[in-house]
């Protein structure tokens, strides 16, 4: 990616939706304000990532984990986010686990049925992968499991 | 699964209680979604409104970042949502002071200047 990090914008429609849902009915948002918020959100990601990565590096870990992000939020004075983030993380982890089981279950079913209908299970399998920053081999998946709840 | 547990622990409850603000209906139809993980239509991605692939791309821009767990990408996505909500609401206060119903760029600027948590944004926006 030869773009500046700041050029990576988050989808406008999603940003707009988040803004609208946060504000009372009848309030409008100018295009310039929306664009500024979107930019601010990108900067937030960059700053939070950098902050979280410092924690990972301090702990001599190569993999940034959820705990690092939580620590970053505190560091950035966004303690108010911690509780909702913890809850969301719980739900996410459960969902991930459920998907893994569902994916394995589907495999079994497929073997039984010998039907080609379950092509979407490939999508589930992709989701098992870690978000690799480099093209690291699959073995890094194990790292995710151990790093999980620091 | 029991849905009778207390709200905050999320122990054995369904996915929903802790993520009430997310709208789990259908795909977003976000054509900008370059979902390498194919997470767009799975219910799991409904927990985060922002596309994880885009978040991950941003994180990758940091040369010091080697690897990031899926969870960390998700949490940053979620935190960013909360951030957007927060800054929009804080900016609104200034619009209201100006007796306006439309949030403008200057309201953002005012909020950034006034609120400590937004100090990191100073000088970063076009």
TrEMBL record, chain A:
Stretch list, region Disordered: 93-150
Domain of life: Eukaryota
Residue ranges with Basic and acidic residues bias: 93-124
CC per GO annotation: chromatin; nucleus
Compartmental location: Nucleus
Biased composition (Acidic residues): 125-150
All residue ranges annotated as the Transcription factor CBF/NF-Y/archaeal histone domain in the record: 9-73
GO molecular function per UniProt: DNA binding
Keywords, alphabetical: Acetylation, Coiled coil, DNA-binding, Nucleus, Phosphoprotein
Role noted for this protein: Accessory component of the DNA polymerase epsilon complex. Participates in DNA repair and in chromosomal DNA replication. Forms a complex with CHRAC1 and binds naked DNA, which is then incorporated into chromatin, aided by the nucleosome-remodeling activity of ISWI/SNF2H and ACF1. Does not enhance nucleosome sliding activity of the ACF-5 ISWI chromatin remodeling complex.
Subunit-structure text: Component of the DNA polymerase epsilon complex consisting of four subunits: the catalytic subunit POLE and the accessory subunits POLE2, POLE3 and POLE4. Interaction with POLE4 is a prerequisite for further binding with POLE and POLE2. Heterodimer with CHRAC1; binds to DNA. Component of the CHRAC ISWI chromatin remodeling complex at least composed of SMARCA5/SNF2H, BAZ1A/ACF1, CHRAC1 and POLE3; the complex preferentially binds DNA through the CHRAC1-POLE3 heterodimer and possesses ATP-dependent nucleosome-remodeling activity.
Protein name: DNA polymerase epsilon subunit 3
Organism: Coilia grayii (Gray's grenadier anchovy)
TrEMBL record, chain B:
One Pfam family here: CBFD_NFYB_HMF
The keyword Metal-binding is assigned to this record: no
Subcellular location: Nucleus
Domain Transcription factor CBF/NF-Y/archaeal histone: 48-112
The entry's keywords: DNA-binding, Nucleus
One term under GO cellular component: nucleus
Main location per the UniProt record: nucleus
InterPro entries attached to this UniProt entry: CBFA_NFYB_domain (IPR003958), Histone-fold (IPR009072), Transcr_DNA_Rep_Reg (IPR050568)
A GO molecular-function annotation: DNA binding
Keyword presence, DNA-binding: yes
Disordered as annotated region, ranges: 1-45
Biased composition (Polar residues): 1-11, 34-44
The protein's role, per its UniProt record: Accessory component of the DNA polymerase epsilon complex. Participates in DNA repair and in chromosomal DNA replication.
Binding partners and assembly: Component of the DNA polymerase epsilon complex consisting of four subunits: the catalytic subunit POLE and the accessory subunits POLE2, POLE3 and POLE4. Interaction with POLE3 is a prerequisite for further binding with POLE and POLE2.
Protein's name according to its UniProt entry: DNA polymerase epsilon subunit 4
């Amino acid at each position: 990616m030869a773009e500046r990090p700041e050029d990576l914008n988050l989808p406008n429609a999603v940003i707009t939706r988040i803004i609208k849902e946060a504000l009372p009915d009848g309030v409008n948002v100018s295009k310039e304000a929306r664009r500024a918020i979107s930019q601010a959100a990108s900067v937030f990601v960059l700053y939070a990532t950098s902050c979280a990565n410092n924690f990972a590096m301090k702990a001599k870990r190569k993999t940034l984990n959820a705990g690092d992000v939580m620590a970053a939020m505190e560091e950035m004075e966004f303690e108010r986010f911690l509780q909702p983030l913890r809850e969301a993380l719980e739900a996410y982890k459960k969902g991930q686990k459920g998907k893994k089981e569902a994916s394995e279950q589907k495999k079994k079913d497929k073997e039984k049925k010998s039907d080609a209908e379950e092509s979407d299970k490939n999508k589930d399998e992709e989701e098992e992968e870690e978000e690799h920053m480099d093209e690291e081999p699959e073995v890094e998946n194990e790292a995710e499991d151990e790093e999980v709840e620091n | 699964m029991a849905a009778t547990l207390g709200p905050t622990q999320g122990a054995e409850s369904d996915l929903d209680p802790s993520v009430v603000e997310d709208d789990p209906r259908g795909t977003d139809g976000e054509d900008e979604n370059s979902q390498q993980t194919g997470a767009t239509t799975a219910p799991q991605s409904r927990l985060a409104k922002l596309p994880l692939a885009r978040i991950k791309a941003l994180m990758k821009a940091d040369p010091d970042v080697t690897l990031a767990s899926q969870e960390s990408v998700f949490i940053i996505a979620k935190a960013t949502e909360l951030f957007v909500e927060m800054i929009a609401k804080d900016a609104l206060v200034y619009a209201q002071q100006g007796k306006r119903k439309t949030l403008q760029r200057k309201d953002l600027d005012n909020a950034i200047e006034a609120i400590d948590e937004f100090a990191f944004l100073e000088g970063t926006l076009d």
